[in-house]
């Protein structure tokens, strides 16, 4: 199992790509999960900036594990715009040498969508998945609240409905626990589709709202309840032991304060476990 740092953890810090790459190397991470906003910003710097990023990756013997962004596949999606966004992310993935793009399955909980709406999301994912496949890219659907992939049962059904070799799962253990599912049992059911893991923890179910996107993006948003993997409600000791021989990538998402300190501690804890 390779372990990545998510650059969204540094969304409110002034760090360069060189700073992040050096940190990742020094703390013995194997990869960087690059937030789409950061990838686009670096790309806008021109070919010299991209070349320097690739030089740093080679220098430190690390890689970009995935570009994490959002492509609208909801029933209301303007698919022309979504395809353009997909093409933009494919280009970024190719620039940074990764074969994975993360997105979400719509904008509404699975229980609130009717059969026709669900079919539209499935069809939209097939369209985007086919475009990714043509470029040698995998499209990873994150298990996440307020999407069709908000619990294990619905995510499993979604994978069978889409039935496309390029459409896979980014398994966020906390969000499946939040849905009332057993994280390890969920992994067992979704194993054939899982290509990446997201790791984060929380002190209580009530505090899971801190991971709502509007709160995450707000510099003054609440960080209440965000704790290291070893301290929260999700049993990550068991999870890490179960997935460390998977050959997949696991990304640390730290949305709390002082990310450099906590991510370094998380890496040490994982190393001690395995």
UniProtKB/TrEMBL annotation:
A family per Pfam: AP_endonuc_2
Gene3D superfamilies linked to this entry: Divalent-metal-dependent TIM barrel enzymes
Organism: Paenibacillus agilis
Name of the molecule in the record: Sugar phosphate isomerase/epimerase
Alphabetical list of PANTHER family matching this protein: HYDROXYPYRUVATE ISOMERASE, XYLOSE ISOMERASE-LIKE TIM BARREL DOMAIN-CONTAINING PROTEIN
Residue span(s) of domain Xylose isomerase-like TIM barrel: 29-272
Keyword vocabulary terms for this entry: Isomerase
Molecular function (Gene Ontology), one example: isomerase activity
């Amino acid at each position: 199992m390779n372990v990545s740092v998510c650059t969204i953890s540094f969304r409110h810090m002034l760090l360069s790509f060189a700073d992040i790459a050096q940190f990742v190397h020094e703390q013995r991470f194997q990869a960087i999960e690059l937030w789409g906003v950061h990838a686009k910003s670096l790309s806008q710097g021109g070919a010299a900036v991209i070349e320097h990023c690739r030089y740093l990756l080679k220098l430190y013997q690390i890689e970009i594990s995935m570009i994490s962004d959002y492509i609208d596949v909801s029933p209301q999606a303007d698919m022309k715009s979504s395809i353009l966004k997909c093409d933009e992310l494919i280009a970024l993935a190719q620039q940074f040498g990764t074969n994975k793009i993360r997105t979400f399955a719509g904008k509404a909980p699975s229980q609130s969508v009717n059969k026709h709406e669900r079919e539209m999301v499935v069809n939209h994912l097939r369209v985007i998945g086919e475009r990714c496949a043509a470029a040698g890219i995998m499209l990873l659907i994150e298990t996440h609240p307020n999407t069709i992939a908000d619990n294990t049962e619905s995510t499993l059904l979604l994978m069978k409905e889409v039935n496309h070799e390029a459409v896979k799962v980014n398994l966020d253990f906390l969000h499946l626990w939040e849905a009332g599912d057993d994280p390890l049992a969920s992994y067992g059911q979704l194993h054939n589709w899982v290509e990446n893991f997201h790791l984060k923890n929380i002190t209580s179910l009530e505090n899971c709202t801190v991971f709502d996107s509007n709160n995450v993006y707000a510099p003054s948003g609440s960080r209440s309840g965000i704790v290291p993997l070893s301290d929260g409600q999700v049993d990550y000791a068991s999870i890490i032991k179960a997935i460390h021989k998977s050959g997949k990538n696991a990304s640390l998402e730290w949305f709390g304060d002082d990310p450099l300190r906590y991510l370094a501690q998380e890496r040490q804890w994982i190393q001690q476990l395995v």
